[in-house]
Amino acid sequence: MHRVTLYPYYISISSEDGSCLMDAIVEAGIPINAVCGGKGECGKCKVYVKESIPESTLQSLLKGDYSNLEFQLTCQTTVDSNIEVFIPPASVTEKMKVLTMCEDTDLGKIDPLLVKYHLELPPPTLDDNISDIERIKRELRNQNIKLSHVSLDRIQYLGKTLRDANWDITLSLSLRDSGYELTEIESGDTTVENLGLAVDLGTTTIAANLLDLNTGEVVSSAADYNKQMIHGEDVLTRIDFSGDAKGLRTMQGLAVKTINSLIGKLGKDPDKIRAMVIAGNTVMTHLLYGIYPRFIKLEPYIPVLNTMPLIYAKELGIRINNRAILHSLPSRAGYVGGDITADILATRMYEKSEISIMIDVGTNGEVVVGNKDWLVGCACSAGPAFEGGEVESGMRATTGAIEQIDINPGSGPDYKTIGNVAPVGICGSGLIDLLAELFTHNLIDRKGNLQQEVDPRRIRKGNEGAEYVVVEKSATGNSTDIVITEIDIQSIIRSKAAVYAATALLLRTVNMDFDDMDKIYIAGGFGNYIDLRKAILLGLLPDMSVDKFVFIGNGSLTGAKTVLLSRDMKEQAADINKKLTYVELSVNKDFFDEFSSASFIPHTDLEQFPSVKKIITVLKENCNTVINVP
Amino acid sequence: MHRVTLYPYYISISSEDGSCLMDAIVEAGIPINAVCGGKGECGKCKVYVKESIPESTLQSLLKGDYSNLEFQLTCQTTVDSNIEVFIPPASVTEKMKVLTMCEDTDLGKIDPLLVKYHLELPPPTLDDNISDIERIKRELRNQNIKLSHVSLDRIQYLGKTLRDANWDITLSLSLRDSGYELTEIESGDTTVENLGLAVDLGTTTIAANLLDLNTGEVVSSAADYNKQMIHGEDVLTRIDFSGDAKGLRTMQGLAVKTINSLIGKLGKDPDKIRAMVIAGNTVMTHLLYGIYPRFIKLEPYIPVLNTMPLIYAKELGIRINNRAILHSLPSRAGYVGGDITADILATRMYEKSEISIMIDVGTNGEVVVGNKDWLVGCACSAGPAFEGGEVESGMRATTGAIEQIDINPGSGPDYKTIGNVAPVGICGSGLIDLLAELFTHNLIDRKGNLQQEVDPRRIRKGNEGAEYVVVEKSATGNSTDIVITEIDIQSIIRSKAAVYAATALLLRTVNMDFDDMDKIYIAGGFGNYIDLRKAILLGLLPDMSVDKFVFIGNGSLTGAKTVLLSRDMKEQAADINKKLTYVELSVNKDFFDEFSSASFIPHTDLEQFPSVKKIITVLKENCNTVINVP
């Protein structure tokens, strides 16, 4: 396996020796331009490749200065060593929608929660007759490692293991509060393989990254819908389902089942995975640990605990190494969970002097504002629409999902799917595109009602009422029409209204305005390729200068990875949590008013959306003119 | 139940309301004088009784000044409240053999490893909306208690428990390294019941005390042979048996089975027992925890570890509360175990400026010399003879055991059994008495050979060679002759020789002599009533002024209890362990010489036993004269 680092995305992936670079880039989710289908004919997929790109060259490339540099075609390049690749904007498909990746994913020194140490111990003698464990401790002390715990089942045959290995061993040491726990002993030097698992435990989607804890590299990844979905789309219905011991056991089991199924897809021996970090909202975390969550739903919305005890992942039924310790990012309140702590870690807003705002758009919407001195957060229920849930043709941002859409008045929607295959549904970013396009083509009004007269061919009456046909079944990958119903559209508008209302209200709570914000970080499970201008047009995001937005992707997963790779980040997570003030919106009388005002495209108060107001003015003036969003 | 404290023994026992004080005193193992059989006729069982004896009065009583104090008969006294009782020497049978109990069993403040806290929490509100655990932590913090761990299975329904209990709860908090672990939550105030278990995990005998952790009182106790005995009498054969996984599992299971059977005899709901401390030698401790002990037997005699990890007792199969933490006194080396750390704790020699020596006579003999600045220890294999093992009619110091013997030349042995019932065997102290008496009556020579011509009626040929009939079956409780064989006698002589040789050699190692010792502490499982002068005559103990000897009884159990009742003592145990220097005798060339010299009664070098030399001189001069040991 070779490591392929992709700029300007700062993504590292593992590629098999001899694999095609284009495939590797597609695998990483970057829409490389491949008009000719990778035959080396169109010349559109040019990139700059080096084993290591010097920092000065990289800076020039990032500034768009490509002079004197030789580019090559990804489709004609074979990966046969670790490489660094710069992909110029021209080589990705036109509507590339990643705005910026999290600007700072550099952890500095990698200092993971699970470390491996290779030791060659001096054998005991009558003069040096300390116990086997003391001999190990002495050697570790020389390396400034404090061994504070041992797992009994790992030392029961330690004496034999040490002597069979001729005192040449590798220890797996897991971080605990007061030092390291000895969780595995292997013969010889096995330090080369050191794997850990980071998991984003989402209400709708669970995503996992297998990390090489020596390098920080993502070895493999997997994601799937949370199997708990069959018992309810949002956290409130999950809480209701867990009202008795049987229901709680079921929920706990389904979360574990999803995680175990993801582990099965990671391509490594689970016994070699020896550390795990999860980030999830408070309810999901309670359910994973089998903790009765009922009182999070009832006023005053109290969780049992915010910082989970350190346990072995096995204790929950998670099938990795028996002694792999499960760490969980701390929650702040019933509706501001470890996923938000993870988001804040991913943004690094907690380190800066400037004030920023972070908006996480998931099944729950969470908003945090602040800087290095203070942090204030709130939450709202957004529903699963942005993750493709509760929407007729919705799906996760995975192969076959329509992730971007343009509507041509003549030929109907032009779309792009993840993996460039026949479409089977629409993911979050596609839905945002779709609603914005429907609106700018006068196919829906500001309330989201379909305007059949504008396109009577595509707008029809379906089982659930009026619907717009995005792709006819003849062109889909599953022989089913891909549609969006009026009910879907209302649902998406409610979702975006909840997020916007929470954001606006939180800023009002701290007596601030969007203009006071240095950065607006956007996190969420709707895929990485959201079209910012369309999200603003819809009224999901505030109408700000686009250069203030930073898209951090799955901040929950990034935060979990960050903690897995760094003791310091684990401490930072605890500090963030202490610093974060929680504002309870559910009892805030203004929330419903804000929500109602935001339940329009983009908002009842157009003054809050000056750029959208201009578009609407044009639309009104000439209702047959189609406006292309700039 | 009332608490009865007995002076000058400093023993506290629990007695049922309305019980007879004489019975309570007999139960405590004190041989109260009851010539008339407890009918109130002989007037010999007079004691001084008060609800609380003032310190000044107690001091007078201890000095033998009984003026102006009213005494009463134990057999005519009913226990109907907590009382303190002073038993004057005249009221115990003539040959009372307890020399001194451990002089200082006062722990100061009881600060047990398991504490219970009753909390009445303020219910959460929107303004005070911290999590349930944080609410508990906040309240504990106000009481200066640091809650550092929670057991997951104890908090899964915490939210419901708290609300069902109307926020009125009692917490069980178990000490861990960095604070307390929340291990149980009960509704209302349950602080009145707080039970912990102290166990002496001996090679031959396992003894358990159930303690009230609020008062320090012993609620009940039980002891039995270690069921591992069926696979070998001493630690070496146990190690051999544990040479493979099956054998090790068997050994581990037998130790646990013995402990569980003792727990069943303690008369309390095992779920209410929430803390446990064991003290055992290194091999026994390894076996209990299922740790492969093989390398303790092989040079250089290395244990896997000396300080066991904190685990739940349940993890070993011990049937007390699921979350009761098992603490184990730390060992120092393969043959100086946690039992010796416990002995040292019981003696308090580690606190004193004067230099003392501690001799533990069990299946293994261990000797420690030192003071507050230094401690040096060694070990030897003594065999199970002093606990009644490997001796034809040997038995533990329990009901029916002959614990003292006088031989009358005319009528044969006079004896006293524990519980004053018909004899069924002889315990360690009885065997010491018996050998000394056989020797002073010329029935054995200095090598331990029976002299048939001296008493042809009682000395006969049995299945195992020559034997002396102590009690004929017509008078025993099990219709079997109680005998001692020549093989038994050799075995006891070897045991005492090993202990004496180790003691002498250790002193030589530190360039000291018995005369340098301020105190000689004697610990051991042979019962509390050893006749010191007879033990010296036999050559088991050095020929020193009797006022230097302090008998601490089962120091291992005392040490375990002490730790269970005191966090400070747990720390002291760790400190003692760090301070203790271990001397390996098994590779010491002088040991075999010392052992050979000591394999006589009392020793080949009579100069080391001047008081015994006098007796032997008389015996030699007149081989028909019987010398009564003074």
Tell me about this structure.
Two copies of one chain form a homodimer. In chain A, strands 14-13-12-15-17-16 form a six-stranded mixed sheet, sandwiched between helices. With 630 residues, chain A is of the alpha/beta class. Residues 94-104 and 625-630 of chain A have low confidence and may be disordered. Helices cover 28% and strands 25% of the residues of chain A. In chain A, helix 12 crosses helix 16. In chain A, a hairpin with a 4-residue loop joins strand 19 and strand 20 (375-381). Chains A and B meet through helix 3, strand 9 and helix 5 of A and helix 3, strand 9 and helix 5 of B.
Short account of what is shown:
2 copies of one chain form a homodimer. Chain A is of the alpha/beta class and 630 residues long. The radius of gyration of chain A is 26 Å and the shape is globular.
Q: What is the CATH H-level superfamily of the domain at 195-328 in chain A?
A: Domain of unknown function (DUF4445)
Tell me how many strands of chain A there are: 29
Q: Overall mean pLDDT score of chain A?
A: 89
Q: Note the quaternary state here.
A: homodimer
Instruction: Give the low-pLDDT segments of chain A.
Output: 94-104, 625-630
Structural class of chain A: alpha/beta
> What Rg of chain A, in angstroms, do the CA atoms define?
26 Å
Q: What's the N-to-C terminus distance of chain A?
A: 42 Å
Strand content bin of chain A: 15-25%
In CATH terms, what is the architecture of the domain at 195-328 in chain A?
Answer: 2-Layer Sandwich
- Briefly note the CATH topology name of the domain at 195-328 in chain A: Nucleotidyltransferase, domain 5
CATH class of the domain at 195-328 in chain A: Alpha Beta
Most extensive interface: pair and counts?
A-B, 48 and 48 residues
Q: What characterizes the major β-sheet of chain A?
A: 6 strands, mixed
* Strand ordering within the main sheet of chain A: 14-13-12-15-17-16
Number of helices of chain A: 17
Q: What global shape of chain A is seen?
A: globular
Helical content of chain A (DSSP H or I, runs of 4+): 25-40%
